[in-house]
Amino acid sequence: MPDTNALLEIIQSLPPARITAREQERTLTHAATAASEPSFAIWNNPDYAAYDAP
Which of 13, 21, 49 has the alpha carbon at shortest distance from 5? Predict the structure, then answer.
């Protein structure tokens, strides 16, 4: 198991641009997830539950 202090030191040593890029990536991922949710709504339809039954 990695040493928590060592990981914290690595994160703190990252340049601000690297951290900002990661935050932007996370924001885009959340936005893409939210945008795709309506496409998957059909799987929440009880009328189609029979097709999913074992």
Answer: 13
User: Each residue of 7-21: pLDDT tens digit?
Assistant: 888 888 888 888 788
Positive/negative CA dihedral, 41, 42, 47, 49 = negative
Tell me the DSSP string of the chain.
---HHHHHHHHHHS-HHHHHHHHHHHHHHHHHHHHHGGGGGGGG-GGGHHHH--
Rounded distance between C-alpha atoms, residue 43 and residue 1, angstroms: 38
